């Protein structure tokens, strides 16, 4: 069943939870429950605000929070589109990426959060969210797709591969250029000071988190 009754701990080395645990079997849970558990438990999630361009040159802008780094050298991102229904319709972002092989991953600061959220709306195909919402674009250095001018960090990318896994489509992106606002660079000029970017992250439901309140813990040295 989903959920199943709590089961007592079988070892004394694991401290019991204060209120016990609810247990869920993914094989018997419906999609909505799984989505709520996964997006509520895997938090905070970084937001990739992806700009693309169709063959006619019309831009598209949409956020994805199923997003992470999968390789440093070479630098590769993974972004996942989850199909909302059985029709398995690709979002404009995916269609454009497959057609043109290019995009820009823009980071999202708190001051842009409302506009980013507005780009989640269902616009007719071929509509430019940048134009509709007045998002100022900036020319990229390597790819033809423009980035978001106010984004503190912009990763210009090319499509490496796509793969369908379950009800999701994973897109692997090669990072071919990185543009960083000088105002958020660290003292060495080659790192990013995360206390200056004021980025937001995705939580469950309609909730977001700020990155202004940070905790610093030094990595342990080898014994």
Automatic annotation (TrEMBL):
Keywords: Flavoprotein, FMN. Belongs to the flavoredoxin family. It holds the Pfam family Flavin_Reduct. GO terms for molecular function: FMN binding. Residues 40-190 form the Flavin reductase like domain. PANTHER family: FLAVIN REDUCTASE LIKE DOMAIN-CONTAINING PROTEIN, FLAVOPROTEIN OXYGENASE. Its cofactor is FMN. This is Flavin reductase like domain-containing protein.
């Amino acid at each position: 069943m989903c959920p199943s009754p709590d089961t007592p701990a079988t070892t004394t080395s694991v401290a019991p939870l204060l209120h016990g645990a609810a247990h869920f079997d993914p094989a018997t849970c419906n999609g909505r429950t799984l989505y709520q558990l996964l997006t509520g438990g895997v938090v905070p999630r970084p937001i990739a605000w992806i700009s693309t361009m169709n063959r006619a040159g019309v831009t598209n802008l949409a956020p994805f929070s199923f997003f992470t780094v999968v390789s440093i050298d070479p630098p590769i991102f993974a972004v996942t589109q989850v199909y909302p229904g059985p029709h398995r319709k690709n979002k404009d972002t995916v269609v454009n990426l497959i057609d043109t092989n290019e995009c820009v991953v823009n980071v999202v600061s708190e001051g842009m959060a409302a506009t980013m959220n507005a780009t989640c709306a269902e616009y007719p195909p071929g509509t430019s969210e940048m134009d509709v919402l007045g998002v100022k674009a900036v020319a990229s250095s390597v790819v033809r797709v423009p980035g978001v001018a106010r984004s503190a960090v912009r990763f210009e990318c090319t499509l490496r591969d796509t793969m369908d896994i379950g009800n999701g489509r994973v897109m692997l992106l090669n990072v071919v250029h990185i543009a960083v606002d000088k105002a958020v660079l660290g003292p060495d000029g080659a790192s990013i000071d995360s206390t200056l970017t004021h980025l937001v992250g995705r939580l469950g439901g309609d909730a977001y988190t700020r990155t202004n309140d940070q905790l610093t813990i030094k990595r342990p040295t080898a014994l």
